[in-house]
Design goal:
This protein is an alpha/beta fold. The protein has two domains: 7-132, Rossmann fold (3-Layer(aba) Sandwich); 144-204, Orthogonal Bundle (Arc Repressor Mutant, subunit A). The chain has helices at residues 16-27, 41-51, 64-77, 93-102, 115-126, 150-160, 165-172, 176-190, 195-204; strands at residues 7-12, 32-38, 55-61, 86-90, 107-110, 131-132. Strands 2-1-3-4-5-6 form a six-stranded parallel β-sheet, sandwiched between helices. Helix 4 (93-102) links the parallel strand 4 and strand 5 (107-110). Helix 2 runs parallel beside helix 3, helix 3 (64-77) runs parallel beside helix 4 and helix 6 crosses helix 8. The longest helix has 15 residues, at 176-190.
Length: 212
């Protein structure tokens, strides 16, 4: 991140209504600052050159190819520097993830995610870490993960990425006692012995990927 005390965000979204919504959510977070917005890739690339944000959020709606083009355009403006930290918002995270992650996107988040999930993702990706959040409606079928509630899936994902209870509490805006209760229930439901076992289990079930 830059030397600023805020995470500096550039938003790319061709739809004015959703762009306004994203801007409102992030503007209301004390640790974040929206430094620029753009309605298309070409405008965003110029703004990226000018502003050097910590993270770029690209709302692609239904077109993953647009996210790939966005990353390529942003990277061309600063070829000598590390790839930009890009978070893609999409209506179909499962279908989009494989395409955009190969292009260098740091994370993929469902458009149906809550504002808390969005700001948590921004904080994670601004540090250079990667993130792939399962969609709320993702079908878990007969997998052991089907025993978990959607909130427990979110807690377990962060557990598997090495987050402490205090860090999970901060990311999901939950009390530490609530997080502790979720962790205990997760371990019991999945028959896990400890957090190391939880990480192994999460990788085996592809809840998190090797790039984490």
């Amino acid at each position: 991140m830059s030397g600023s005390t805020h995470i500096r965000v550039l938003l790319i979204d061709p739809q004015p209504i959703s762009l306004t919504g994203l801007h409102t959510i992030l503007k209301g977070h004390p640790a974040m600052q929206v430094v620029g917005v753009a309605g298309d890739v070409d405008a965003a690339a110029a703004r990226y050159q000018e502003l050097r944000p910590d993270i770029v959020i690209v709302n692609v709606h239904t077109d993953p190819a647009e996210a790939v083009r966005s990353v390529d355009a942003l990277s061309r403006y600063q070829p000598a520097l590390p790839a930009p930290n890009v978070l893609v918002l999409t209506s179909d995270a499962a279908a989009t993830a494989s395409q955009v992650l190969r292009a260098g996107v740091k994370g993929v988040l469902s458009c149906s995610s809550t504002s808390q999930e969005l700001t948590a993702a921004v904080r994670i990706i601004a540090t250079g870490r990667s993130l792939l959040v399962p969609t709320v409606g993702q079908k878990r079928g007969d997998s052991p993960l089907g025993q978990l509630t959607d909130r427990e899936i979110k807690v377990f994902t962060l557990m598997a990425r090495g987050f402490s209870n205090a860090e999970i509490s901060a990311e999901l805006t939950l009390s530490q006692s609530t997080v502790k209760s979720h962790v205990q229930r997760i371990m019991e439901k999945l028959g896990l012995r400890n957090r190391v076992h939880a990480v192994i289990f999460a990788y085996e079930k592809k809840l998190v990927g090797a790039n984490f």
